[in-house]
Amino acid sequence: MSLPEPEFAQLSGGTPDRLLGLVVGVDDPHRADVRALLEAHLRFCFSSTPLCHAYALDAERLAHPDVTFFSAREHGVVIGVGAVKRIDARHAELKSMHTAEAARGRGIGRALLEDLLSFARGEGYQRVSLETGTMEGFAAARRLYERAGFVPCGPFGDYTTSPDNTFMTMELA
C-alpha cells in the first residue's frame, strides 16, 4: 500500500538563499523516511534525558487526531520534523522538533518553527507552549525558541517540574 503524497507548500517569500527548495507541510509520521528521522530524534531524546522525564512522541502518538505533524524537505529529502498538539481550543504545544544532523546550522529549524507558529495562528490558538531538555544537547533548541520569542513558564498540561525539563510559552498575536 502506498501512502498519499504529503501536502507541501513552498515557504513564503523572503526565504534566505540557503533555504531555496525547502518545503514545509503536513506529512504522515508513518512514511519510511520520516520515521527514520523520528527514530533518530527519539534516540537522541532518550539517550540525553532520564526516561522518566523524556516526553518525545513516537510516530504512533504523532498520528493522533489532536496532533498535526509536519516535515521540512529539501529537494524531496526530509531534513526536519515538528508537530502542533492541541491542548485546548486556545492552547497548543510544539512537539518533536528535530533537524537532521547534516542539515543543522542552516536555518531549517527556524523555518520549520515559523511555519508551525503560522499554522497555530491559523487554527486560532492564542498560546503555544513547549517542553525541552535542560541538558547541553538541547541548548541550540532553547536558543532557537528564545530568539523566536518564547519565554520561560511553569509546567503545563500533565507535565511536572523536574531538573531535566524546561518549559517555555509564547502568546500569539
What keywords describe this structure?
173 residues, alpha+beta, Aminopeptidase, eight-stranded mixed β-sheet, globular, disordered N terminus
Topology:
Elements: E1 7-10, E2 22-26, H1 32-48, H2 59-62, E3 67-74, E4 77-86, E5 91-99, H3 108-122, E6 127-133, H4 139-148, E7 151-153, E8 165-171
Parallel strand pairs: 5-6
Antiparallel strand pairs: 1-2, 2-3, 3-4, 4-5, 6-8, 7-8
Explained architecture:
- This protein has 173 residues and is of the alpha+beta class.
- It has one domain (7-171): 3-Layer(aba) Sandwich (Aminopeptidase).
- It has helices spanning 32-48, 59-62, 108-122, 139-148; strands at 7-10, 22-26, 67-74, 77-86, 91-99, 127-133, 151-153, 165-171.
- β3 and β4 (77-86) form a beta hairpin.
- The longest helix has 17 residues, at 32-48.
- The chain starts with 6 loop residues before the first strand and ends with a strand.
- 32% of the residues are buried.
Structural class: alpha+beta
Domain module count: 1
Element order, helices and strands? EEHHEEEHEHEE
End-to-end Cα distance, whole Å, is: 42 Å
Helix content: 25-40%
Number of helices: 4
Our estimate of the beta-strand percent is: 25-35%
Query: Which descriptor suits the 3D outline?
Result: globular
Overall pLDDT level: 86
Level-2 CATH architecture: 3-Layer(aba) Sandwich
Largest beta-sheet characterization = 8 strands, mixed
Number of strands: 8
